[in-house]
Amino acid sequence: MTKAIVQQQLSKFKDALQERPEHKVLERTITRNGILASAADYQAETKMTPVFSIDLDTGDVANQKQSGRCWMFAALNTMRHEIKNKFNVPKDFELSQNYTYFWDKLEKANYFYENVLATADLPTFDRKVAWLMTTPQQDGGQWDMIVAIIQKYGVVPKAAMPETYNSSKSSEFNSTFNLKLRKDAVALRKLVAANTPAAKIAAFKEELLNDVYRMLAYSFGEPPAQFDFEYRDAAKNYHLDRGLTPTAFFEKYVGWDLADYVSIINGPTADKPYNQMYTVEMLGNVVDGRQVRHLNVDMETFRAVAIKQLQSGESVWFGCDVGQESDRQKGIMDTTLYHKGELFDIDLKMTKAQRLDYAESLMTHAMVLTGVDLIDDKPTKWKVENSWGKKVGNDGFFVMSNAWMNEYCYQVVVNKKHLPAKLQEILKEKPTVLAPWDPMGSLA
Fold first, then answer.
1. Which segments in the chain show pLDDT lower than 50?
2. What pTM value is reported for the model?
3. Is 386 annotated in the active site?
C-alpha cells in the first residue's frame, strides 16, 4: 500500500544528512560546479591517450551539424574511406549526406503511410498507433536502412549535392514534415474507415507523396540523376569522370557488395538469446527494401569481429549510447571518467541488461571505429571517428575505453567473412520479430 511522505520521515532525512561530516563541503561543491565536474576523475584521462597499435588513416572528420544524421554520416564515412584507399582522393573528400537524406525522407514518408494503413483498424489509443504518431519520421536510422537507400538510389560526391540550411539544421523541416504526416494519417484512416476502394486509397497516397517530394526539393534541392566527378587526388593529379549516375558511381568508386555487410548486436536481455537473428516490427524506410536484421552475440564475439575488420584495414560502423560516461570536448568515453555514485554515496550500478530493460540506455549515436590498441592481443582502447566536426575531441576523433565499449556499445557492422562459420549460417535464419519499441529498434 502506497503512502505519502510525512513530516516524521522528513525529520529523519534531515537528521541523517546532518550526521554526515562532509555534507556541507559536497553541497558547496556540487551546487557551484554541477554533478559531472564534481565527480570527474582526472586520472581516467591519463589512460586515454590517443595512441593505438592499429590506426587507420581515414582523412578528416565530417560534421553533421544540427541534424540527427549520425548513422548516415558514419555509413558514408566507411565508404569514403574505401574511396580514399582506392583512388587517393583528398583527405577532406566526402560523399553527399544531403543526397541520401533526401531519399531517406521520401522513403520514410511512404513507409509511414503504409504503417498507417496497416493499423487503420486499430483505435488511436492502441500502443502501436500511438507509437507511430509519436514520431512519424525523424533524422535517425540504422545500418540496414542506409543500405536500403543506397541499393535503390546509389550515392554521389558531396560536390554533386552539397548541404543546405535544412539538411544541416533539420528541426524546422522535421516539425513541419511531421505535422504533414500526422494530418495525412488522419485522412488515410478516414478513407479506410469509410471502406474506400484500395485503388482510390493508392491514388490518394500518391498525391500525398507528390506533396512530400515537393517539400523535399524545396528544402534540400532536387537530387542529380547524372553528374560529372571532377577532382584532384592527394598527389595533385587531375581526374574527370563524366556522365555518372549515382548507382554507377557507387559501383565504380565504392564497389562493395552490401549484402556482405551485416549488423551484429550485443543485447544481453533475457528475451534475446545469443546466436539468434532478430528484426523489429515497423522499423525501416524503403518498402520492400532491405529488412533490418540483427545477429545477437556475446561481447567477446562482438569485439573480436570488429578487431578482425580493423586488422584487415577496414573501418567499422558502430552504434552506442554516446551520452553515457563521456566528455564531448575532450573526446573521451570511459566508465571511470566520473564517479557519480561515490559523490552521493549511492550505488548507481546497473548491468547492461538492466539498463536496456529499464530504459536507462539504448543506442543513441553511430560513429566509426578506425583503430584499436591491442596489448598482449587484448583491446584496451579504441579510436573513434565522430561526425561532430574538428572542434571536439582530438580533431574530431574520440578515444573509447574497452570497458566503455562493453557497457554502452550495442551494434557493429562487419563483413560477414569475419564471422565464424557457424554464425554465418545463422545469418540465413528467419529472424524473431521484436516489438516496435524494443531498445534494439532505436534509431541512431
1. none
2. 0.96
3. yes
